[in-house]
Amino acid sequence: MQMIYSAQEMNRTIQQLKEKGQTIGFVPTMGYLHEGHQSLIRHAKAMCDIVVLSIFVNPAQFGPNEDFETYPRDIKRDKIIAEKEGVNIVFNPNVDEMYPLGESMLVTVKDRVDVLCGSSRPGHFDGVATILVKLFNIVMPDKVFFGLKDAQQVAVVDSMIKNFHYPIQLVPCQTIREKDGLAKSSRNIRLSSDERKEAVHLYQGLKEGLLLVNKGERSAAHIKSQVTLYLETHLRLGKIDYVEVLGYPDLQSKELLNGRFIIACAVQYEHARLIDNIVANVNNKLEGEPYAANINEK
Ligand code: AMP
């Protein structure tokens, strides 16, 4: 496994691989790897010749009062996991390498960001899109792998690829969960043991919503109110940031659900903000989606 720290070397290496006809799968992460990241790597390994994993905690996507400084980092451990998963190249630049001129030029995202984390974290998706433009230009991947755990991010990347004409296929991958249903996240280690026990209710609440849809309920407002009620009843330590039921991937509000939709929530704990969601389709009675290869299918 090759470690690369410079954008120029990364780009040169990719060009050489492409000249040899190799296809490039790219998994962008902020590190502190867990099974969620590992599943993206496995999808990439199955679909591409070369897997590039980036590890970069991107300052531009954190708000002033968010956890950029304290975001968990452990590159030694990450390298061991990446090596074990068969990653070919780890790209691990520092902030000066990725922002040589500081934040003097940023991408502005207007589409799909007026709801969910886009509205509670202003500027977050501008930071995400900015770093992805840089990374896509450097890594020039054929396919990129993103987790549906961050379903709004998947929707924004989908729009970004179309807006900027990137010849890249987006592969959204299923959310990987702990045995009790909590979505795996680098931030879970920040939960106290009582918060950790309580956090199981995020997914339980979302599943209550899905159950209603599977029973034939189509009113987004009703599903939202039932999921909210569930969370209000079961959360004592966490504070609900939002519960939303929207069309997916356009993230438009809908009176009645049809086709693909998302039920999403965010909950603030003392040292960690957790998000979770279920993306499903009213046309197939699904327990969430096992693997959403084409997010635009109706
Ligand atoms: P992060 O390091 O948190 O920025 O995440 C990097 C990538 O891993 C993103 O595409 C995330 O959506 C994905 N990811 C994070 N957690 C999970 C999970 N539990 N299941 C699947 N993918 C995940």
Percent range for β-strand residues: 15-25%
Order of helices and strands: EHEHEHEHHHEHEHHHEEE
Overall mean pLDDT score? 95
Number of helices: 10
- The number of E-state strands comes to 9
Named CATH topology of the largest domain: Rossmann fold
Determine the fraction of residues in helical runs and give it as a percent range: 25-40%
Low-confidence stretches: none
Query: What does the main sheet amount to?
Result: 6 strands, parallel
Straight-line N-to-C gap: 40 Å
Structural class: alpha/beta
List each distinct ligand once.
adenosine monophosphate
The CATH class name of the largest domain reads Alpha Beta
At CATH's second level, what is the architecture of the largest domain? 3-Layer(aba) Sandwich
What is the alpha-carbon Rg in Å?
19 Å
- Overall geometry comes to globular
Total separate domains: 2
State the strand order across the main sheet.
1-4-3-2-5-6
CATH evolutionary superfamily of the largest domain: HUPs
Model description:
- The protein is of the alpha/beta class.
- The protein folds into two domains: 2-173, HUPs (Rossmann fold, 3-Layer(aba) Sandwich); 186-284, Pantoate-beta-alanine ligase, C-terminal domain (Pantoate--beta-alanine Ligase, Chain: A,domain 2, 2-Layer Sandwich).
- It is built from ten helices and nine strands.
- It has a six-stranded parallel β-sheet, sandwiched between helices.
- β2 (24-29), α2 (35-47) and β3 (50-55) form a beta-alpha-beta unit.
- α6 packs across α7 (151-163) and α9 (200-214) packs antiparallel against α10 (220-234).
- The longest helix has 16 residues, at 124-139.
- Homodimer.
